[in-house]
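Weekly sync, protein design subgroup
Attendees: M.S., D.O., the rotation student, P.L. (late)

Item 1: inverse folding check
M.S. brought a backbone from last month's batch and wanted to see whether the design step gives back something sensible before we order anything. D.O. pointed out we never logged the input encoding, so this time it goes straight into the notes. Structure tokens as presented (257 positions):
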């Protein structure tokens, strides 16, 4: 039995939609997508990546390739057959790897606020990632969590969301978090994007300051036939910032024949 924890709120739905969260978050990131997907007859399956949420990390190596294999194992255990795959940020890199390693299990691919290679486009972007790496390596997850939460939810109205994100990040396994940061820094799918054959939707928040819209545009351009949608008044956390608009785009895309 898999050690990966997952939420499966509508096990009778079909087909399944595999939902992959961002760095430091967990399966609950997709709570606002559940009702729309279930209402449309889908089976949303949101997983906790090893070391995050309730999925334990065994300490024997953490890589995007290994995480993608673990997700395939979950689907095999649940006997879902091919699924739609939706990934946010870090989850978007896992989704790309999943589509490349397990094309027979991938129906459609949705990449939200993510990248093919993590290269900040501005000096401030480089400083932000360096700051995060130094904080998690010295002061630990709580200090780093505050910086991330303020970056993702800068609006004062989102104080409760910042607090929730800080709490979630702080619960992560520090070993997994550090290895995940390293894996994301090394991730580069640029030369393999042409191998992705699943119909693909790239979703970008116009105000994303973590992964710039320009970098997400390059991701979309690298995948043959990919559609790129820009969500207004949304930052990096599109599933929360503009849940209704994202849900509309998801259903329109996933319900295509």
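Designed sequence read out in the meeting:
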């Amino acid at each position: 039995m898999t050690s990966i924890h997952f939420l499966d709120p509508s096990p009778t739905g079909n087909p399944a939609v595999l939902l992959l969260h961002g760095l430091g978050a967990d399966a609950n990131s997709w709570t606002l997508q559940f009702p729309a997907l279930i209402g449309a007859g889908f089976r949303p399956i949101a997983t906790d990546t090893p070391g995050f949420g309730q999925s334990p990390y065994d300490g024997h190596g953490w890589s995007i390739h290994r995480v993608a294999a673990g997700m395939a194992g979950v689907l095999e255990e649940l006997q879902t057959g091919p699924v739609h795959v939706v990934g946010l940020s870090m989850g978007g890199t896992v989704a790309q790897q999943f589509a490349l390693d397990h094309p027979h299990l991938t129906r459609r691919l949705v990449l939200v606020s993510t990248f093919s290679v993590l290269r900040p486009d501005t000096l401030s972007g480089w400083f932000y990632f360096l700051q995060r790496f130094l904080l998690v390596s010295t002061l630990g997850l709580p200090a780093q969590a505050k910086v991330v939460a303020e970056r993702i939810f800068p609006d004062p109205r989102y104080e409760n969301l910042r607090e929730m994100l800080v709490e979630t990040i702080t619960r992560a396994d520090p070993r997994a978090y550090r290895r995940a940061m390293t894996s994301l820094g090394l991730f580069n799918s640029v030369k393999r994007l042409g191998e992705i054959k699943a119909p693909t939707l790239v979703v970008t928040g116009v105000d994303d300051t973590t992964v710039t819209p320009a970098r997400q545009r390059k991701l979309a351009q690298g995948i043959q036939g990919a559609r790129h949608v820009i969500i207004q008044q949304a930052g990096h956390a599109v599933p929360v910032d503009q849940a209704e608009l994202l849900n509309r785009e998801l259903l329109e895309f996933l319900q295509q024949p």
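Discussion: The CA atoms of residues 181 and 188 lie 13 Å apart. The chain has one domain: 6-118+188-254.
Action: P.L. to compare against the previous round before Friday.
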